[in-house]
Each structure stands twice: as C-alpha cells, then as structure tokens.
Amino acid sequence: MEKRITTPLTKDVVKDLKAGDSVLLSGVIYTARDAAHKRLVDLIDTGEKLPIDVKDAVIYYVGPTPAKPGMALGSAGPTTSYRMDAYAPKLLEKGLKGMIGKGLRSQEVVDSMIKNGAVYFAAIGGAGALIGKCVKSAEIVTYEDLGSEAIRRLEVEDLPIVVVIDSKGNNLYKQGQNAYLESVK
Question: Which residues does the UniProt record annotate as the domain Fe-S hydro-lyase tartrate dehydratase beta-type catalytic (predicted)?
C-alpha cells in the first residue's frame, strides 16, 4: 500500500506503517552518517544538548554530492545502515522515530525500534540522482568540517521510500526471504 506522510513522524503515524508499505515522505528530515552519529552520541553520553531536535524526527543516512545549478542538493543515495547501528539505540531513546538507509539492521536496533516506536525505511540504492530531485532545500546545520557527512536539514517532497522494519519488528527483508524459500520447496 502506498502512503503519503509528512514529518514530524509522530507515534500515531509510525504505528500505522507496516513492513512493505511504499511511502512518499514530505517535510523536514536530517542527514547524518557514522561520523556525525558518533558526535551526537558523545553529546548524549556527556549530557550535552544535541544540535538538532531528534524527537519525532527522521534521519537519512546519506552523504550527498554537491548541488548542481538549480538544485538544492546533488545525488543523495542511501548509505549502508549497519554503520549507524552502534549509535541508533541512543538516538531512538531520545525520540528519533524514523531512519532511512539501505541494508540490514542489528537485532539491538530492531529491539530499540520496538521499545521506542520507530520505523526503518529503505531508499533505493543507485537512485541517488532521482532522490536528489525530491530535495527542495538543504542547509548545513552542524559539523560542517565533515564535508558531505555534515548534518543537513532537508526539506523533501514525495521522497520515495519503503518501510523495511516497522515499529512491531516486522522485517520486509526476512519476509521476502521466507516467501522465496517457501516458493522453491
């Protein structure tokens, strides 16, 4: 089923998303990869204020290319998500509700998603140029020294993503694998 949702990603919106749902996401999201995640978690560990409000927010695991003329952002394909697995549970505890990336997540992250009512979306790897066209504005919020991995605030319109792991822990990757294995028996 295709759903149109707009950030902030509230608990009520999250609970209605199911593994396998196609989503067109609009609103404000943030970009961050592993170096930025480490800095955010270091701030949490020392009790300092985060430079972004993660409550009901979505973080896209991406290091976009520079914008071409007339574009807000360049190519913006997803980063492999497991690189953020060591940091994600602490951000989920702070109220993060959505993560966008590609690939599998650890059981610790899935358990934290269930506990905190969050969802994991996949963006299509290899479709970075198309995804970049969904970005209407982009500004660096913090960690400019990280270059393409700086945290950016993006305004997106109809960003195409798929719910891979929902807030109940249903996992599209496992469902697809199981369906395939059943079909070849």
Answer: 7-175
What are the structural domains, with CATH classification, of the chain?
Answer: 2-183 (3.20.130.10)
- The one-letter amino acid code at 105 reads R
**Binned average pLDDT, 10 residues per bin, the chain of 185 residues:** 92 96 97 97 97 97 90 90 97 98 96 98 85 93 95 97 96 74 69
**pLDDT number for residue 1:** 64
The rounded Cα 184 to chain-centroid distance in angstroms is 33
Question: Encoding tokens for residue 53?
Answer: 């409000």
Strand partners, 6: 26
Q: Check if 37 is active-site.
A: yes
- List beta partners, residue 145: none
Asked if 118 and 96 count as a contact pair (C-beta separation under 8 A), the reply is yes
Q: Catalytic pick from 25, 29, 31, 37?
A: 37
User: E strand or H helix at 177, and its extent?
Assistant: helix 172-183
3-state secondary structure labels for all residues of 113-160:
HHHHCCEEEECCCCCHHHHHCCEEEEEEEECHHHHHHCEEEEEEEEEE
